[in-house]
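Hey,

The postdoc asked me to send both predictions to you directly instead of through the lab channel. I've kept everything plain text so nothing gets mangled by the mail client. Protein one:
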Amino acid sequence: MSGNRHEPQRRRDMAALAIAAGLLVAGAVMLWDSARLADLGGYSGVGPASVPRVVGFALIGLAVWTAIEALRGDFPQRPAQNIPPVLWIVAGLALQLVLLHLTGFSIATGILFAFTARAFGKRNLAMTIPIGIVFAFAVWAVFSQLLMLHLPAGPLEHLVFPRG
């Protein structure tokens, strides 16, 4: 008996092809950029361009693999995207970028924290903004005061650690 099953023909996954193209571009840019670095591998052969080359080739390999799977139609069907949470996160990132030098790291990142929490279902911004500011201030203090790395300071940071 021959099995005459009619399987539905799978279509090309255009979203996966777009992702493959993005991976290919990212890998090519990394290879191009690593070619401009001085090859100071010395006796070991490992220099500043080694890791970017490995990552570039890996991205190109992933791009080829993704494109093959997309052309075969082997990716599972994805559920519809829930747009409002994505917009909350994008709005939080945009606000952080706009407010970073005006309000400082802690307040801008606290707002990003609250907007991201909102995207994940926590609706009370009046609670999540202060919590986010406290966490972000702790991160700022560790990086700025202990590790001596520069993060933008705002009024809150200057209040606790006045300029000396």
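Protein two:
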Amino acid sequence: MMAGVRIDKWLFAVRIFKTRTIATDECNKGRITIGGINVKPSREVRVGDIIEIRKPPITYKFKVLQLAEKRMGAKLVPEFVEDLTPKEQFEVIEMQRMVQWSGREKGTGRPTKKDRRDMEDFLDW
């Protein structure tokens, strides 16, 4: 049985990051913590560790159930990792998605004077 696996290898193996390089970069940027302490990519994870990953605007929380060095199929992931992310975090994403949808169409540029007058007329009504 393995004593520990590098955190960058484990994050890639359980499909949290698309590549090991991205997992390594996130560790180096200080976005990955274990027990509130920033970790280097070479830090070994052990069964039972709680890993927090900051991907703005939310922070994901995962518990290590088993160790793995090689990437696996998506169906096997639940045997190796448990998602402990609070539901409030996912609500933040949903709210952000709604706010973006209500804005102007992407690429339409700034409102024209006519657009501004139309908005003022509508709001004064």
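Summary for protein two, as requested: The first helix runs from residue 7 to 13.

Thanks,
C.
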